[in-house]
Amino acid sequence: MLFDIEHKPSSALAAIDDGGGQLTYGELLALRSELASHLPERELVFCLCENRVASLAGFVALYDCKDVCLLLNAAIDRGLLDKLYETYHPSYFWMPESKSTDFGFEIVCAYKGYVLCRTGEKAPMMHPELSLLMTTSGTTGSPKLVRHKYGNVENNARNVAKAFGWTPEDRGIIDLPMQYTMGLNVICSHLQAGATVLLVAVSLMNPKYWQFIKEHQGTNFTGVPFSYEILNRLRFQKMDLPYLTTMAEGGGKLSDTLFAAFANYAQEKGKRFFATFGTTETTARLAFLAPEQATSHIGSIGKAIPEGKLYLVDEHGAEINQPGMEGELIYEGPNVTMGYATCIEDLTQGDEFCGVYHTGDIAKKDADGCFYIVGRMKRFLKLFGLRVSLDQSERIISEHFGIECACTGDDTKMKIYITKEDLKDEVKKLISEKTGLISTSFEVNCIDAIPRFDSGKINYKQLN
Predict the structure, then answer these.
(1) Are the CB atoms for 306 and 332 separated by under 8 Å?
(2) Distance CA 67, CA 91 (A)
(3) How would DSSP label each residue in 177-236?
(4) Facing residues of 415 across strands?
């Protein structure tokens, strides 16, 4: 079974959530058998995810049953979910029981507050190696998905567990969403090690968060840059957390000031601080900075994970070996996925990446062989650790209001340009609702006209 679960002690706890749920490795095995009796292999299942044990258990069991899951936020906007449904026609849903009445599907199995529902759709044709689907920009409901193949999740879980040194005694704190590639990887790497996952639904600002991880002796924390900004405001360094041994950061670039502060804190307190880097296309993690280098290599993502290879290429595709020179970051490894899907027919496609992924990130390498991200080539932002498509955001606004708009910005704020002053507040409200991000993540500006090239394409350089 996935992560060698059948070899783990059946009574050992695989997961605990802050809603009172618990899950043993033995229960994971039992659910796999239960679900296998209710649906055939190679069904397409939309998993509406929450940080709850049933959500985790369903994904693991369905994956092991050779069904293909698309992981989505259970709180996804219904209009965006309907669009994905109309595009891919899933044959089953794994969802919270409380949401099942909204759909009217036939319930075929119930488990710890979740249900397996049959939609009545016929399973689409899918490539035999297709194992998992994840959104490239789940915050905006883009139909563009990343196609994983068998071995991606397993290899990345094994190599990350090895890089971090996870053991069955570890208790990994998971407050990142499990449908988010890094959140899923933290879960999978801990299950690979036979450790216990602590699933947290409440925010870092909630006292119940800290009460829960203290009660269950959380050992490992993984956060995005915004998580560390909150920790800094909470004066985390003064908290009494004797069981916490490891802190990891990923999902975006942490400021050098915060990077140094937490690296120094970890060194002083005898803890470990890992900076990591990855993408959905590489099953979450592709690089990490060894904790003993954290204070001397501020801002670095380190080197490739075990079994992986990192290098830079120039604009002509030639490899760059000279330290300090910038180029596109390229990764090779067994965790590189198959490619993308934008329609149901794409689910039959084979491996387009062939183990090599061009990240679209501009980076440089120092004399020690450690890499540093400089910028991004593609039109995505990472707001609070979540990747948001600028192009998809433009389409949402344009389609809803029937207006021209342009979106730019950086990883601190999206800047939206429109030509109708009276719609500024409504545009901000819409995009905040559609992405699930707070309204202060967006700045709406009214201009006379959207600047364009002769070709008709938007001139983003003029806007910036």
Answers:
(1) no
(2) 10
(3) -TTSHHHHHHHHHHHHTT-EEEE--S-TTSHHHHHHHHHTT--EEEE-HHHHHHHHHTTG
(4) 408, 443
Q: Other C-beta atoms within 10 Å of 148: how many?
A: 27
What are 136-177's pLDDT values in tens digits? 754 555 689 999 999 999 999 999 999 999 999 999 999 999
Per DSSP, the three-state class of 44 is strand
User: CB–CB of 48/94 below 8 Å?
Assistant: yes
- What are the structural domains of the chain? 2-123 (3.40.50.980), 152-376 (3.40.50.12780), 380-463 (3.30.300.30)
Measure the CA–CA gap between 305 and 189, rounded to whole angstroms.
13
Could you tell me which residues come within 8 angstroms of residue 243 by beta carbon, excluding any fewer than 6 positions away? Answer: 171, 214, 217, 218, 219
30 is written with which tokens? 């039992």
* pLDDT (tens digit per residue) in 84-140: 999 999 999 999 999 999 999 999 999 999 999 999 999 999 999 999 999 975 455
Q: What is the pTM of this model?
A: 0.84
Q: DSSP states of 356-417 as a string?
A: EEEEEEEEEE-TTS-EEEEEESSSEEEETTEEEEHHHHHHHHHHHH---EEEEEETTEEEEE
Answer left, alpha or beta for residue 213, where phi above 0 means left and psi between -120 and 50 means alpha: alpha
